[in-house]
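explain this:
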Amino acid sequence: QVHLVESGGGLVQAGGSLRLSCAASGRTFASYGMGWFRQAPGKEREFVAAISWSGRATTYADSVKGRFTISRDNAKNTVYLQMDVLKPEDTAVYYCAGDRYPQRVPVTALADFGSWGQGTQVTVSS
């Protein structure tokens, strides 16, 4: 089991940027892929981005492709989500998640992830 703690959320104007961080502890971070999901009020939790255990492979939801960048620093047990050109529709609680199984290509389904953080609020004003 891994413990995940997100930080970096906040209020930003449309067109602005935020960088989310997720600090992990409790298992071999470098062996597991990581992902970011988000959940807006009244909507289901949706996939945003994922990165492989090595950091060499990434995948993104179409809605954020070209604007968001996922990265990781295995020496710091941390995964990041750089969010640029933010839009009001990006407003949501953002969750960090850890893959259930080690050393896979980036996965995107909710069921693929077995560990979740508590979430951090991102609000984009128009």
